Automatic annotation (TrEMBL), chains A, B:
The record marks H27, H255 as: Important for catalytic activity. PANTHER family: TRANSKETOLASE (PTHR43522), TRANSKETOLASE 1-RELATED (PTHR43522:SF2). Catalyzes the transfer of a two-carbon ketol group from a ketose donor to an aldose acceptor, via a covalent intermediate with the cofactor thiamine pyrophosphate. It catalyses: D-sedoheptulose 7-phosphate + D-glyceraldehyde 3-phosphate = aldehydo-D-ribose 5-phosphate + D-xylulose 5-phosphate. This is Transketolase. Mg(2+) binds at D149, N179, I181.
Length: 669, 669
């Protein structure tokens, strides 16, 4: 270790102790223990441009053990990113991609960053396969990860690691901070597996550094070796001392709360620093890190020159790439969305979704996705699709865009977040709607970070029938609607399915969930691609209405049939289709009150928990229990999803409000 | 293979094909491929009593690949359980524990059964350590599992496998149906890891059978070997042919839909059966399986005799065991629940929960649980706790009841389901409330199956402060409230925390979630252990009230303070505490309308998504976005959780309804 390297590492360590103490909250131990590996990565391997943190061919750095975020903030500060010393003193408790420049993905919930990195590596390999040409290595970056024991215990990381090994992602390099400590204490309490052997089993290249506190040459050589292995992801297990320098080093005591002032003073003395100086960065360390920015700026300049020559030689590819990087969809892509009339046959919305994918997959080439081993059920594979697979397998190649996620819903969602974070691609993934909750940890981060990720969720209710209650979502839409910044779209027919894709692709800064049926649905009168974007709209209007029936997805046509029954009795029903609570809630109050006019009671019908429906309706036909196994029509009948029962509920509701004032569902305090 | 064995196996196979075809839905392939291993397990290893399926020392059999349930139904039918041939023809689409006798746990969502089996094995080891005495092997059963590729790809199974290896659960034996097929096709598409090497890395004993279609002696010997290894769980990889006999055998085509009539006829001919006979069980096969019930009945008789002698020699232990098996809590256990008065100090409900655990852990000895590596945060460890660890580790033993789950939330929940299914124990587990969604796949099955499982979820809102939005639940309570058959309890102080435990333990047939604060809360006037059981109750009443303020958990005291402010202005507020929507919803309409009297507008205050609160209130102070990092008081202020803002919302609401009729929140159509 050279003097300046040692000085830099100890600067990181003392700074970490100071920052956590100042915030009076946080995790000093891991940043101190990981300082050497971060030093190696940022000084010798990571290329990035602090002046343009989102330059597309940067190396990605992901701190999967997000609670160690002080380390990342410090490295960004030293490297010259727009993270000031004042920022350092009041940073978010976990790294948030949308808040801090240089943070690629939001981490903290354990295992997510690790799984995101697999998406990042997939993107790198795919874009390289697509755009690189002889002499034009436009994409040759690596994804570097630091991870702790916690992440490696999480199922989402296991799933992602197995997938990464299968896909042979040679551009992925993980440094595992093996400090033998988790929050409860020594890892011997609960985590005694042979981690490297497990990763070997996944098909990873593995290495070990026994003294990660001091052996910088060893770490450097290991990362160099890892880069040379281009057909396997790499993991390097690095034994470190958590909270090194503290009197409690190597124990869980230094993990999750600030060190004492006295302890910090002693640490500084031990590392040759002035114990009275706080937030101290020696000038020579500042100077030393200046080269990071210079190196990064030069790399981007060279890359821009390369791109300019590329434009001349490959104008079409260049135009496509530049369009993608500007985050613009192809002109007129939406014209490809199919439209339907009521005379078109009844079709399941999952099948209508497949039709949309077939129409747009080649027009919107940045779409990349697949299914968690339910391709034939989710209907997520378009006709011209090629598998994203390592070319040596002969079952696909890295230009392919159909990802075989395997039975790994949680990793699928986290990988999609990693793909969205990378740029230039729009990820989608499919499973049954009920199993989006298997992936919730990552779905939540799609929403929090504002990534355009498409969740294509089929078999969206008890209407899936025979598979029974283990597969029938009940609480799922309530959970999604309660989650901020995510669009939930449950289309009722072909036009609304096209509208759902239009909304999902046009919403650049939030994820979308498409809830799609297994069963066939008729094409509705007055349904509309464009009106879908308003979230809710009138399908059938009538003067002096007695009742409004509102439905979503597969229940809209039941509401339409219930309206027919009511009309035959002289009752005047209106019908509203409401594919998206979120989009509807964003409309003007004038619009919303035209959809739900005051004075007319509302009955909702949705084959899902009624929880939350009191917002837009006075009475509900919905689920209050789990479902059951059986043919879908029988199951629907059992739980009252029939025109007859909806009509009965409508009559009951009209009678209830006879002579009473009907509460407004729009005008509330 | 003897003639009768071959005949039995082919009976299972042809019956599986017939049953799936009759149901016109289901999965014939795996049952046909797994018939030999099921034959071996049920004829040679599994001891169970069809006349008393819940005899406590039975061997447990768990079909983790639940879609192959026809296999399980057929084995139960053959073995003499109360599953008739008519039942067989109309069984649920996945095995449901509460519906079919002999089904231990509800499976289908992949990976769950595997993880449940770890809970089952923990229970077996713990109860053996606790109750077995020299000469009295009351607990010596095994947990046998059949699992497919799908389950082994799921994160929940990986987490559970790592935990099982760590805990050295020698009573757990897993048969892995390695058929190289998943729904999308050959496993080479997405699942190419070395499974046995991975399990070795976890510390498992591994074996391999290369011809699982025919090598019954090999399977038998492998299970015998597995039983001999008592300090490691065992997995046996068994290569099989999915849908063996079908013209499409060995492909995904036989996985998820019925075989054609012609194909089935040919299969029958191939296996020497009459192709015109359906649902055919040869007499000699029926006769052969009779011994299963005889063997099981004898085993239970012997066990009952053993228990009788045990009663004489160990009356105290016997009484405890018999009480547990009768599913009765100890007399007067609830008297130990602490009670508080307003003069008691402010304490966080997570800390109050710790106090409850300290009071009851030794009185209710069937409580067994821990935390997903957040012990010091969740405060789930009571003073006299001993770790559940393999005795060789010297950090605990199998009598210990504190489970170090590691950072494995999903496995924790699934393991708890396995413990609850086993009997004689009440499992609990802790993590941050936000991370209950990491475990949702298993939480949902706790609810669907009706297991008494306690989720002790701390840091229950943005009130956790500095960790920021990645850790702050927003949608979580809405999701839980929308999930059927689960109690959600968010206590406001010490009395309500005791009340929450009272509700959770007394509700034998549903799980409970306790949402607990990180921050301190004052002890409230008029709070009550017993009233907590009503879900919502009046904390402050007033004649001719202008407004009702309703809160949950940490926001109740804010509502109380807001009421003070309003009173000082001459406004008359009522205050309601509502620890549980579910319990409140189960009260009489008279009671509910006394809590929310007509004509008085209601303002809710809960630091959580407002989604769903329109049911019980007209206006809300709640969350509509994600939270932020910061000290909790600042964060609370930022989002309006202050007495001042609640009072302002109350004034606004009163003004809004001036001269208008106030909608009833109780009387609805
Ligand atoms: Ca660690
Ligand atoms: Ca399989």
């Amino acid at each position: 270790m050279t003097d300046i390297t040692a000085l830099s590492i100890n600067t990181i360590r003392t700074l970490a102790a100071d920052v956590v103490r100042k915030a009076n909250s946080g995790h000093p131990g891991a940043p101190m223990g990981c300082a050497p590996m971060a030093q190696v990565l940022f000084s010798k391997f990571i290329t990035g441009n602090p002046s343009n943190p989102y330059w597309i061919n940067r190396d990605r750095f992901i701190l999967s053990n997000g609670h160690a975020c002080v380390l990342q903030y410090i490295m960004l500060h030293l490297a010259g990113y727009d993270v000031t010393m004042d920022d350092l003193k009041q940073t978010p408790g976990h790294p948030e991609a949308h808040l801090t420049p240089g943070i690629e993905v939001t981490t903290g919930p354990l295992g997510q960053g690790f799984a995101n990195s697999v998406g990042s590596a997939i993107s790198g390999e795919h874009l390289a396969a697509l755009f690189n040409k002889p002499g034009f290595d436009l994409f040759n970056n690596h994804t570097y990860v630091i991870t702790g024991d916690g992440c490696l215990q999480e199922g989402v990381a296991s799933e992602a690691a197995s997938l990464a090994g299968h896909l042979q992602l040679g551009n992925l390099i993980v440094l595992y901070d093996d400090n033998h400590i988790s929050i409860d204490g020594d890892t011997e309490l609960s985590f005694t597996e042979d981690v490297l052997k497990r990763f070997e089993a996944y098909g990873w290249h593995t290495q070990e550094i026994t003294d990660g506190d001091h052996d910088l040459n060893g770490i450097t050589a290991a990362v160099e070796n890892a880069k040379k292995v281009t057909d396997k992801p790499s993991i390097i297990k690095i034994r470190t001392t958590i909270g090194i320098g503290s009197k409690n080093q190597g124990t869980e005591k230094v993990h999750g709360s600030p060190l004492s002032a006295e302890d910090i003073a002693n640490i500084k003395t031990k590392f040759g620093f002035d114990s009275d100086k706080h937030f101290y960065i020696p000038d020579e360390v500042r100077e030393y890190w200046r080269s990071f920015g210079e190196r990064g700026q030069k790399a981007e300049n060279d890359w821009n020159n390369l791109l300019n020559s590329y434009k001349d030689k490959y104008p079409e590819e260049a135009a496509d790439l530049i369009r993608r990087l500007s985050n613009k969809l192809p002109n007129n892509w939406a014209a490809a969305l199919p439209r339907y009339t009521p005379s078109d046959p009844a079709v399941a919305t999952r099948k209508l979704s497949e039709t949309v994918l077939n129409k747009i997959a080649d027009i919107v080439p940045e779409l990349i996705g697949g299914s968690a081993d339910l391709t034939g059920s989710n209907l997520t594979r378009w006709k011209t699709a090629v598998d994203f697979q390592h070319p040596s397998t002969n079952i696909g190649n890295y230009k392919g865009k159909y990802i075989r996620y395997g039975v790994r819903e949680h990793a699928m969602a986290a990988v999609m977040n990693g793909i969205a974070a990378y740029g230039g691609l729009i990820p989608f993934g499919g499973t049954f709607l009920n199993f989006i909750t298997y992936a919730w940890g990552a779905v939540r981060l799609s929403a929090l970070t504002g990534f355009r990720v498409l969740y294509i969720m089929t078999h969206d209710s008890i209407g899936l029938g025979e598979d029974g209650p283990t597969h029938q979502p009940i609480e799922t839409l309530a959970a999604l609607r309660a989650l901020p910044n995510i669009l939930v779209l449950r289309p009722a027919d072909g036009n609304e399915t096209s509208g759902a894709y239009l909304a999902a692709l046009n919403n650049h800064h939030r994820p979308s969930v498409l809830a799609l049926t297994r069963q066939n649905l008729p094409q509705l009168h007055n349904s509309s691609v464009e009106k879908t974007l308003q979230g809710g709209y009138v399908l059938e209007e009538v003067d002096n209405a007695d009742i409004t029936l509102v439905g979503t997805g597969s229940e809209v046509s039941i509401a339409v049939d219930a309206a027919k029954l009511l009309k035959s009795e002289g009752i005047k029903p209106r019908v509203v289709s409401m594919p998206s609570f979120e989009l509807f809630g964003e409309q003007s109050v004038e619009y919303r009150s035209s959809v739900f006019p005051d004075g007319i009671p509302v009955v909702s019908v949705e084959a899902m928990s009624t929880y939350g429906w009191d917002t837009y309706s006075h009475a509900h036909v919905g689920m209050r229990t789990f479902g059951t196994s059986g043919p879908y029509k029988e199951v629907y009948k059992k739980y009252g999803f029939t025109p007859e029962n909806v009509a009965a509920k409508a009559r009951e509701t009209i009678a209830f409000y006879k002579g009473k004032s009907v509460p407004s569902v729009i005008f509330r305090p």
